[in-house]
Design goal:
With 81 residues, the protein is an all-alpha fold. It has helices at 2-9, 28-33, 36-41, 43-52, 57-76. The longest helix has 20 residues, at 57-76. It is elongated, with a radius of gyration of 15 Å.
Length: 81
């Protein structure tokens, strides 16, 4: 099992995210099916994913943007005041 984990994490020092490499492309569907929004909502989840460099930044930014928009809506709503 350690060997498989190392397969993903070894790309952390690489400039290209693992899923954007030839070796990572077969796993894109699996990672796309994950509930990344819930994982990225937690500070520790976000930091781990960013540090591991597995996901393309465009995936991470998509969920970060959604969260940011929700926060703005909350602050602009009458329920907040």
């Amino acid at each position: 099992m350690f060997k498989e984990c190392h397969f993903f994490v070894s790309g952390a020092q690489e400039k290209v995210p693992f899923l954007d490499t030839v070796r990572g492309r077969p796993y894109r569907g699996v990672f796309a099916a994950l509930k990344l929004g819930a994982i990225l909502e937690m500070s520790s989840g976000y930091n781990t994913i960013k540090k591991s460099n597995i996901l393309p930044q465009s995936w991470v930014h998509k969920y970060a943007r959604k969260g940011f928009v929700l926060i703005i809506r909350l602050f602009q709503s009458d329920d907040w005041r």
